[in-house]
């Protein structure tokens, strides 16, 4: 009988709350030219950081991206803030339809 193969899913840690989750539960962001940009795919050039969507605003307030990307000054988060507003608005709309 052939040995069973276990399916191991990659685990990542949120840069803010430090909880470990599967990649599907977290959002990946990159810092490109001093700007935090959400990554559409799981692979992208440059250093990436993982976080829960709900941890996004707190990560901005606590300057967690500066630490995660090993930068000397805080990166520009304007595109990331816009992305968060859109995603969280979409999530709220879906929740209201379910109720």
Question: What can you see in these coordinates?
Answer:
The protein is α+β, with helices and mostly antiparallel strands. It has one domain (11-98): YlxR-like (Hypothetical Cytosolic Protein, Chain: A, 2-Layer Sandwich). 32% of the residues lie in helices and 20% in strands. It contains three helices and five strands; from the N terminus they run E-E-E-E-E-H-H-H. The strands form two sheets. It has a three-stranded antiparallel beta sheet. Strands 1-2 form a two-stranded antiparallel ribbon. A hairpin with a 6-residue loop joins strand 1 (11-13) and strand 2 (20-22). The protein is globular and about 55 Å long. The chain starts with 10 loop residues before the first strand and ends with a helix. The mean pLDDT is 86.
Provide the descriptors you would attach to this structure in a database record.
99 residues, alpha+beta, Hypothetical Cytosolic Protein, Chain: A, 3-stranded antiparallel β-sheet, two-stranded antiparallel sheet, globular
SSE blueprint and pairings:
Layout: E1 11-13, E2 20-22, E3 27-32, E4 35-38, E5 48-51, H1 56-61, H2 64-68, H3 78-98
Antiparallel strand pairs: 1-2, 3-4, 3-5
Order of helices and strands: EEEEEHHH
Portion in helices: 25-40%
SS strand fraction: 15-25%
- Would you identify the regions where 5 or more consecutive residues have pLDDT less than 50? none
Helix and strand content put the structural class at alpha+beta
CATH class: Alpha Beta
Overall shape: it is globular
Q: Considering the protein shown, what is the CATH homologous superfamily?
A: YlxR-like
In spatial order, strands of the major sheet run: 4-3-5
Give the oligomeric state: single chain
Mean pLDDT: 86
Q: What Rg, in angstroms, do the CA atoms define? A: 16 Å
CATH architecture: 2-Layer Sandwich
* Count of individual helical segments: 3
Question: What's the number of extended β-strand segments?
Answer: 5
In the CATH hierarchy, the third-tier topology is known as: Hypothetical Cytosolic Protein, Chain: A
